[in-house]
Design a protein that fits this description.
Helix content is 50%, strand content 0%. The protein is mostly helical. The longest helix is centred in the middle third of the chain and has 18 residues.
Amino acid sequence: MPSSCKDIRAALAECLQSSDCVLVQRNKPSDCMREPLVDTLPTRCLQLKKGYGECRRGMLDMRKRFRGNQPIAVSKELEGEKGGQLYGGKPAVGDIMGKTDGREDEREE
């Protein structure tokens, strides 16, 4: 299996192994993923199941095959790092330029 889905697959397997469906009710993880028992899974496992399905679907999607699936890691902005791309109205220069209030012409006179 390509490495793009390995992380989410491992997280899903760990979530299933620690769920009540496997630990308490003694069902197989594959049985817990199917319809009668899927309602007993925690929300995190259901989210991981949906994400894993989208990751697998992205491997077959011709629009995504060139660039590959997006990584599952947390984005750099949430970790506090500033990216180099400009988007969403961010200024190109940042804090280098001084702030203005729009009345520079009045001050010069």
